[in-house]
């Protein structure tokens, strides 16, 4: 019960098979709202927020536990164990792809298929490997986050105007339906952008589908091809959609590709 | 008239032209882009900020191409989802990446335009230049950091000091206290103390407040010895100094208080007083016995030589007696046990009798007395006032070995009389005038003159008890005038 509350777990739909939806960095389970209706008639749907995101229990946040993606993978395993679910279909966006990978390596019994949207095994370039970012870019990312998530409202205003006793001002100005605690958001960003899961890909024994967008700044095409070359049972689908959030910008296409994959795998 | 506008009036058309003008030249950037980011419309203002030509942008660049790398990611990861789900974003911080690689901080507001099926058609964004705000923000943060550094330094310095350091407002409410003071008063927060004066020993509180008000009205530093309550409920002696200052920002008047511990000093002084009291009593009794035996000698022996030596001895014993009496007086004053018997007495009478008696003893100096034509009566302890005048005249004689005159005069004013004793001797260096009345103080240019430095102290205390004051005017080599001011009550 604690775990379900901790991760704000919601169970919808009906069906013998379960789909677990794991949101990406900087958001919460709301981002699945265009996808879920397409599956809930045939699948049991599990939605959750990572600790620190959405309506999770912020008091459960522990900087040490969540200092690596492994901590977040533990959350996923604990949720599935709590609900006594096996052989689920895991759908993870962005950094959740690698969180799912870690969970599935540790507990392959929990998963039947992995579906990744915009996955990346490592965001930083490293020699031959193209991740899309230089380490110097990270500063820019953190800056923009500072300016927004932790921006005027959260850091500047209290610092200058001394109104730290009026946190509602911060809340008003934070542009997010998934208003994450700014400190946690920044830590999550660091964990995400410094993670390197290239070595883990080969250990993933669960059949996996990756959805790769065009023009994705966060997970460029090269990364999609790299993942495709590393995961043993892997299918790469390059979408017509652009950006990093096709489940928001082109939900129909995403649903179609997932359904198609599951259909092929089932036969 | 243009196609598509033929059905509207001339005036309305004019208005539309204005709208176009506004779109392009308003001091904000406008642009519209498709869900995949492709820019389909952009105003001149934004183009000029970016230093791009319209043909380089339309259908070629995507919205996130306008931003730095952090902005690109932030757009895809945070802003785009918001536009899709919430339908708008407000005041998102971005940095425009211009052609010349310069960066312009901006705020972006964007709106999702949807079709009737709720599918997004395009997004419209309004972009505000916040370069100035960022500049001031940074400056503010810098100044704040600087002020914080200064504060830290001030705290470090004050925490190292052995004194208590606090600041209060004009009501005595604390704003700052160094570690020493926090510990002394037994608190963690300076602002938990609303009234500094509550820590002052009740009997000292009024005097300190009085002095405080006085120094506030004259904007001069305050200095007072008081007992302050410590964390374990005991009072300790402190020399409290305070200066008022105005806080630059608020204009509020504040006080900086420094408390210097004088417990040890006070302890030593009280030990000395104790010793003084015991010693003067112990010395007195053998002297009384000695005097009695000398009396017996005089009564029983008529031999001339014996009488001569006994008389000489008697004189020395009398000197000793005076010294011991002074010591006793000092210790009585310290213990606040000196007895006074006030009566209404004539000033002329006091002076005439006292000087008359002195004249018979003075071999070297002539004492001139100038009495009042119209006598005045004041409340006094005649014996004690005599003691003061004898002391001043004797001092005058002692410190003017090369002169032969002492002038004593009385002056009458509306509310007081002044009795002045002038000598024409060595004078007192101006740097020492203020120290003259301290216990056991000896003037440095006359250390060869015998004495214990008690006379002026006793005299001043006696005059104070009369509600009066002693003042000195002196010039080295010319002489000194000691003036006793006594109040006249009508």
Protein architecture, described:
The complex is a heterodimer of chains A (267) and B (490). Chain A is α/β, with parallel strands linked by helices and 267 residues long. Chain A has eleven helices and seven strands. Chain A has helices at 2-6, 69-82, 96-106, 135-147, 152-161, 167-173, 182-194, 198-201, 221-230, 246-249, 251-266, and strands spanning 10-13, 18-22, 44-47, 88-93, 111-117, 208-214, 234-242. In chain A, strands 1-3-2-4-5-6-7 form a seven-stranded mixed β-sheet, sandwiched between helices. In chain A, helix 9 (221-230) links the parallel strand 6 and strand 7 (234-242). Chain A is globular. Mean pLDDT of chain A is 86; it is low at 150-178. With 490 residues, chain B is of the alpha+beta class. The longest helix of chain B has 38 residues, at 263-300. In chain B, the strands form four sheets. In chain B, strands 2-1-5-4-3 form a five-stranded antiparallel β-sheet, with helices on both faces. Chain B has twelve helices and 17 strands. Chain B is rod-shaped. The A-B interface holds A 24-27, 30-31, 33, 94, 133, 137, 139-145, 147-149, 151-152, 156, 159-160, 173, 175-177, 215-218, 241-245, 248-249 and B 35-37, 62, 64, 68-74, 76-82, 84-86, 89-95, 105, 137, 140-141, 144.
């Amino acid at each position: 019960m604690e775990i379900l509350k901790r991760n704000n777990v919601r169970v919808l739909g009906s069906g013998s098979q379960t789909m677990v939806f794991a949101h990406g960095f900087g958001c919460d389970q709301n981002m699945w709202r265009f996808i879920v209706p397409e599956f809930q008639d045939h699948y049991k749907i599990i939605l959750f927020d990572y600790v620190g995101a959405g309506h999770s229990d912020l008091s459960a946040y522990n900087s040490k536990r969540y200092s690596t993606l492994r901590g977040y993978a533990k959350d996923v395993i604990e949720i599935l164990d709590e609900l006594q679910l096996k052989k689920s279909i895991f759908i993870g966006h962005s950094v959740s792809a690698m969180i799912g990978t870690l969970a599935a390596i540790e507990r392959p019994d929990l998963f039947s298929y992995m579906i990744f949207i915009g996955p990346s095994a490592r965001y930083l370039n490293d020699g031959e490997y193209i991740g899309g970012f230089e380490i110097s870019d990270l500063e820019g990312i953190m800056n923009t986050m500072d300016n927004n998530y932790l921006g005027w409202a959260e850091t500047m205003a209290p610092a200058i105007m001394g109104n730290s006793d009026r946190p509602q001002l911060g809340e008003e100005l934070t542009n997010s339906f998934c208003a994450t605690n700014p400190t946690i958001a920044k830590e999550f960003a660091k964990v995400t952008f410094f993670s390197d899961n290239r070595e883990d890909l080969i250990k993933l024994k669960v059949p996996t589908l990756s959805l790769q967008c065009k023009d994705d700044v966060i997970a460029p095409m090269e990364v999609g091809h790299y993942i495709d070359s590393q995961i043993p049972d892997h299918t790469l689908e390059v979408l017509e959609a652009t950006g990093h959030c096709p489940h928001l910008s082109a939900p129909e296409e995403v649903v179609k590709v997932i359904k198609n994959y599951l259909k092929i795998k089932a036969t | 008239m243009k196609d598509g506008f033929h059905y509207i009036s001339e005036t309305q058309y004019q208005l539309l032209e204005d709208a176009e003008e506004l779109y392009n030249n308003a001091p904000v950037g406008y642009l519209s882009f498709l869900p995949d980011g492709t820019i389909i419309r952009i105003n001149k203002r934004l183009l000029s900020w970016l230093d791009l030509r319209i043909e380089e942008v339309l259908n070629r660049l995507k919205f996130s191409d306008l931003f730095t790398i952090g902005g690109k990611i932030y757009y895809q990861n945070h802003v785009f989802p918001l536009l899709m789900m919430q339908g708008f974003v407000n005041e998102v911080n971005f940095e425009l990446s211009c052609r010349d690689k310069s960066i312009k901080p901006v705020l972006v507001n964007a709106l999702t335009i949807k079709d009737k099926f709720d599918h997004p058609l395009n997004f419209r964004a309004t972009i505000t230049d916040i370069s100035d705000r960022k500049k001031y923000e940074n400056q503010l943060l810098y100044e704040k950091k600087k002020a914080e550094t200064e504060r830290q330094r001030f705290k470090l310095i004050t925490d190292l000091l052995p004194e208590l350091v606090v600041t209060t407002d004009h009501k005595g409410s604390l704003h700052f206290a160094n570690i020493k003071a926090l510990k002394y008063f037994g608190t963690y927060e300076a602002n938990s103390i609303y009234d500094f004066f509550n820590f002052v020993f009740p009997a000292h509180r009024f005097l300190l407040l009085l002095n405080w008000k006085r120094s506030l009205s004259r904007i001069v530093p305050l200095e007072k010895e008081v007992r302050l309550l410590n964390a374990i409920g005991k009072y300790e002696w402190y020399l409290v100094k305070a200066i008022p200052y105005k806080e630059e920002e608020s204009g509020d008047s504040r006080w900086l208080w420094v408390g210097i511990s004088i417990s040890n000093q006070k302890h030593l002084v009280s030990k000395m007083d104790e010793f003084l009291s015991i010693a003067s009593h112990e010395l007195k009794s053998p002297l009384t016995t000695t005097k009695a035996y000398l009396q017996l000698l005089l009564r029983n022996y008529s031999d001339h030589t014996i009488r001569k030596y006994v008389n000489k001895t008697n004189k020395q014993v009398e000197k000793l007696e005076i010294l011991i009496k002074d010591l006793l007086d000092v210790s009585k004053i310290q213990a606040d046990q000196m007895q006074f018997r006030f009566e209404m007495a004539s000033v002329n009478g006091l002076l005439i009798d006292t000087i008359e008696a002195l004249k018979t003893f003075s071999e070297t100096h002539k004492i001139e007395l100038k009495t009042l034509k119209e006598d005045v009566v004041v409340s006094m302890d005649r014996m004690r006032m005599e003691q003061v005048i004898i002391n001043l005249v004797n001092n005058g004689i002692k410190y003017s070995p090369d002169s032969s005159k002492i002038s004593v005069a009385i002056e009458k004013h509306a509310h007081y009389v002044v009795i002045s004793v002038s000598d024409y001797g060595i004078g007192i260096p101006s740097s020492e005038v203020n120290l003259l009345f301290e216990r056991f103080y000896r003037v440095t240019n006359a250390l060869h003159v015998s004495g214990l430095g008690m006379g002026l102290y006793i005299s001043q205390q006696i005059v104070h008890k009369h509600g009066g004051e002693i003042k000195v005017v002196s010039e080295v080599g010319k002489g000194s005038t000691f003036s006793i001011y006594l109040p006249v009550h009508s």
